[in-house]
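User: Run a structure prediction on this.
Assistant: Running it now.
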Amino acid sequence: MEWLNLSVRWVHMITGVAWIGASFYFVWLENNLNRVNPRSGLAGDLWAIHGGGIYHLEKYKLAPPTMPDNLHWFKWEAYFTWMSGIALLCVVFYWNPTLYLLAPGSSLSGPEGVLLGIGSLFAGWFIYSFLCDSALGKRPALLGFILFVLLIAAAYGFSKVFSGRGAYLHVGAVIGTIMVGNVFRIIMPAQRALVAAIAENRTPDPALPAKGLLRSRHNNYFTLPVLFIMISNHFPSTYGSQYNWLILAGIAVAAVLVRHYFNTRHNSQKYAWTLPVGALAMICLAYVTGPKPVSTSPEVAKAPAAIEYQPLPETALGGGLKPAEPAAAPAAPAQATIDFDKVHGVIQERCAVCHSAKPTSPLFSTAPAGVMFDTPAQIQQQAARIQAQAVASQIMPLGNITQMTQQERDLIGTWINQGARTN
């Protein structure tokens, strides 16, 4: 499964780079055309040097007098990016939806979560296409704002039933489906109609290129938010936050501002303010998502040294997990020093089944990301990571498969706040 994941992810990355690279290049090309006194029939031209050679590129207002024998089309990059992305959704999220896709305690079953995920892709495309073909299509700024609100609403809805990663990746999948739908359903048909009209010596329908231009512009602004979502699984402070949908909204706004600057900087610098605003937005997001001191629960404050952990049954990782219940104990002074032995017990029961030199979980043959909790020194070394992923964002254990309790998370968080001492 890991090698299948790697292979599909690699194909997705390669084709995505090709698609986005081509998109960025043609936007740059369009913005850098020399439109001063162009040759008859041309919209502009451009000289460039790359790879030891000099290139002269010309753009026609409509088309050359006769069509060339070899005309290059840009479509397969988009199609294969989407197809490999869907394959990746299946491998990572749909193969075992209760592990990666659904949030712990989600009201959905695994099959229901998969159906919701797949259905959202088609629903997203049809709603988007309907809005573009409506009167809003003639008011692009208002249309863009409404699309943004709807996508963030989708992120909020996903966050209520999906894991943080699952919610983010499905927003990205909805956007990716919209983008490839634009290519397949609007942009390519418009280009084919244009070429056919020229070949048949008739006037092309101007409505189709206009629709293609609007959808192409949307794809261009969607690009950076989608790229962030693609790498977001490496940053649990974003998708792991209880406000992950708001964080996604903030990053999306910053990304669109940056994209807008690069789209317009060749004609004017009046949008130069978008770069510092985007940078400031990222700084603000870093501040508001920063780790906060752990608020010790009354149970931990009263009895930090009295929690006893029962071994999980051998079938625990196959399903039907039951959290270990703390044994009753006499009260201890509030904020007493946490005994590392108790923390060690929690981590061994809840975390080391995967994060070990020899994982006992059937899901992994090696420790994920090379993180191991076999020794006190290893646990102490990874304290900051444990704080971020098991205490602050609570995205670990994965899918809470070992059923770590809030009391156990508070215990670990208090131990880390007290200096993460092992003696």
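The radius of gyration is 27 Å.
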